[in-house]
Structure formats: structure tokens, C-alpha cells
Structures
1.
Amino acid sequence: MANEGSMGNFKKYSAAAIGAALAAASLPASADWSLLNMPVGVSELSREIYDMHMLMLWICVAIAVVTFGAMILAMVKFRKSKGAVADTGFLHSTRMEIAWTVVPVFILIGMAIPSVDKLIKIEDTSGSELTIKVTGYQWFWQYEYVGEDVSFFSRLAQSSNEARQLDSGIDPNGVDNYLLDVDKPLVIPTGTKIRVLLTANDVIHAWWVPDFGMKRDAIPGFINELWISVDEDKPGTYRGQCTELCGRDHGFMPVVVKALPKAEFAAWLEGQKPGLQTASEVTLAQAE
Ligand SMILES: [Cu+2]
């Protein structure tokens, strides 16, 4: 009788599980499942990091399938209600102990080798063609093009700043890139290895752009570094955020990077340099 009851419950639960699975399958096809994973990104390094992440994920999935599979099989096949009796004579097996020590060691070594390879590559800023110093402040960023005499601050865009105020009456859903836009983005060239030096002026911040696969702390008194090289065929605007809780407005200091083709970047950089007079200024100066 008791068995029948549990069987009935089992059927009820399986019906519920099948129902849930069907409901999930009928979700709108527009759901963006890629958001569940990290982005592949727009640089060779970010793709390598993504591949590494997927490799580790599948290794973990395989281990989970084997271990949970063995557990579930043991629980179902050798349960007491089926007349299983504990083998009290079996207490120790040296062979098994060696196996469950050696196999994980090899798996870990197999995982460590490609990881170390990536870590070394991430740290290798040699051969970079441009250096940008990033300084975190409460609550904005400063970008300095080292040796180029170009430096500016990058703050939350006015549209987001107005909408975020208490009782602003502005619907954030109507604001483009709400809290992910700035007044002056960092501009970088594509197809160029760029060394980014990170520091902060007050508390610890962290500079993060998911599409570059890069995130690093900006710490007062320290210079951390990372490098990025956006694919030549992937100019565009890439967004990130401060990822170290840095005070009241931590959520309001986004990172926006505009990647331009090399020639466009060079023209932009020239235009940012001080001492450069606009045509009207030159005419004014001549008239005086
Ligand atoms: Cu911050």
C-alpha cells in the first residue's frame, strides 16, 4: 500500500515536471539565452577567455554527470525497499583510493595548464602601442592618454543622472542606456594593443568592460594594468561598470568605450590636444 502511495506521488511529480518542461519550451523564442553566459567579446583575448570558461564548464558538467549519476544509480538500484543489504565486510580498497586521488589530480593538471597559459597572456602588456591611465574617483572616471597630453573626465550621462533623481518623474525605461552612458566615453583605436594603467584617487574602484573580457581593481597608491586589443573589424561602443562597491554612487559611474578604426582615432586624438585652435579662434587672433 505504502509503495502504491509513493508511486502515485512519483507519477504526480513527473507530470508536474513534464508540464514545467513544456511551459519552458513554449517561452517566447525571443528570450536572449546568451545573457545567461559571459559574452564572447570583441578581442582575441576575450574569445580565448570565453573558450577557457566553456572548457571548464563542460569538464565540470562531465564530472557532475559521472558523480551524480553514480550516486543516483546507487540510491535507486540498491535501496532498502528493493532488499539491498549493506556489505559490512567491505571497508577499505587501496586500489580505489589511488584511483580517486590520481584521476582528480590529472583532471586538475589538465585544467591548470591552459589556465596558466591564459593568465600569462593576460599579464603580458609588452608590445603595446598606446598607454591609457584610468583613475577612479567617487564617482566618475578619468582617462589620460599617456604621452599625448590628452586627459578628461567621464561622468554619468545627463539623461541618466536626471532620471535617477528621487521623484524625477522620468521613466528610466525611456532613457537610452540608462545608467550605462557617460558624457565623454573613452575612445580607443581598434586593432591596437593598448595598455591600461589603473589607479584610484579615493577608494577602491574596479574598471570592467565585459566585451573585452577584462576587469581589474583601481586602487589608491597602486598601479594595476591590463591590456585590450579590439578586433579591427569590430569598432563600436562597449559598456561596463565600476565593479567594486565604492560608496553611495557606485552604481552611477559606468564605463563606456568607443572603439574607432585607427585613422579615425588618430584624427580624434589630434582634435583633443590642447593648444590646438579652432578656425574661428585663429581668425579672432589674427583680427586683434
Ligand atoms: Cu567606483
Note: Confidence is low (pLDDT under 50) at residues 1-7.
2.
Amino acid sequence: MLSAKRVIFIFLDGIGLGPGGNMTNPFCQASMPNLMNLLGRPLIEGPVIQEGDLLLNGIDACLDVDGIPQSATGQTSLFTGQNASKILGYHLPAFPNEPLIQVIDNYSILKQVTDLGGKATFANAYTPHYFELVERGERMHSATTLCVLAAQLNFRTLDDLRRGQAVYWDITNEHLLHQDTSVPANSAIRAGQHLAHISHDHNLVLYECFVPDLIGHRKDLGKALKFLEQLDAFLHGVIETMEPQTSILISSDHGNLEDLSTGAHTCNPVPLLVVGPLAHHCRRLNSIMDVTPAIVSFLEP
Ligand SMILES: [Zn+2]
């Protein structure tokens, strides 16, 4: 372990900060009492919140490249500190291609922290089926998975999930129950508590949830409201369980869910929400490219 400093990095795919008072922005309508209590407003655009150990700012995901930001380049930028969209000259959707895999191999946030002597982990649980699909060439690795491989870390399994030592990508295991009924459903608050427990012996815990991007593409308001309620309970579970020296950082790769008038991604800024000592270190961040360097320099001895 590097030091007592700990960071939980929650990556929510497809969440931007959109305008308030808008019927197509589910963040204006969702019941999120814990987040409201923390921020004093919904997770929408507005003045920067910078009070003690709390920071909420909108950061750029367009990265000086024309077009609508996409997942492969956005996530690579977010998890490496490099401008992946500029490297390619365009925004690449879905999964990283060979040039981006090279960038992740060199600059993966998990690798940067382990190279410093820190203990880093990816909290998501994986099924054996996932690796079979990749083996057969029927699936490509996501940016987060490539970050784990670059750092030569182990993947968490369904056994870890059963023991409360992993979290599934949908928070509650709902999607997993279709494939494997041996894993019980989890409440969102318990999933948050599990994530916080993992951070007790790690300097960096990365967690990915791509539910918001899926719902945003489908423009499904009902599902969006249900998910945001779960997200609120999940974040509450993390924050109430994490130790005082631990920080939580939440960000995204591009907007989507905050504008259900379109099924496409948006050019809105994405949230940079930080709770804990790391908040003081993140006040000057402008884009998603600045997130990894800020976390790594915060953890650096
Ligand atoms: Zn995405």
C-alpha cells in the first residue's frame, strides 16, 4: 500500500450535466434524496460546488475534436490521461482499437498506481462466459478491462460477488440473474457498502456501470428514473461506509442519459463529483483527460 490515501473511482457511462427544468432530463425528475442532500440541487448544470471536501464541476468530454464524443476514445482519455480522440483524430465508439489499446497498455490508471507501489483493483465481477466470448472473437475488451490487463491485475469473479467482494456492472445483479441464478439480487445500498469495503485495503478501486448509457440510447424515462433512484442509494451506501480518509470520484465519458429527447450521446459537459480529501486536488480539472493525472498525483507519495 502506498499510504492511507484511498480513492474509489466510479465510472458511469453516458451521464452529462444537462439543463434543469427540462422534461427530457430525468435528473430533474428522479427521486435522489441523498444526492439532493449532498449537493443542494439535482445533478444538473449549474454553478461549481466547491465546499470543503465536496466538489461538483462540469468537465469537457469533447477534447477539442469535432463531432459527438464516444465511448472508446472517451474512456481511454478518462482512464489514461491521454487525449485519445486527438490521437485518432476522431471520436471512436464502443471498444478501443489497436492504437488505443497501446495507449491503455502504457498509461492505464490501474497500471500507473501499481507502478507507484500502490494497491489498485477493478471492483466489477466477471462471468466465465465473458472470457469465452472474447476467446472466440465474439466480444472485444472494453477500456476498463484493458486497464486491468495492462496492470496485470486479477479480475473479480462471481465467487467474489457472492462474498460481497465485487459489484456487478448493473449494481443490483438484475442482468446477471438471467444467466446465473446462484448469485442473489443485491440491493443498491448493499452494493455500495460492498464497494466501500473493497476500498478498505486498496489505494484505488475502479468501478464501471454502463446502465445509464444503455437507457439513454433507448430514451426510456421509466427505466431512467428507476436507475437514478438505485444510483442514489448506491452512492449513499458507498459514502456512509467508506473510511474518512477515502475519497469518491464520479465521472463519465460523454453525455447521454441527461437528454432523452435523443438516443444519441450529447456534447454536454460530464460531471466531476468528488467527495473526500481528493476534492481539494481536483478544483482545476477542465476535461476528462485531467482525471487520471489528478488521481495518480493525489495518491503519489
Ligand atoms: Zn460511453
Note: The chain has one domain: 6-276+289-299.
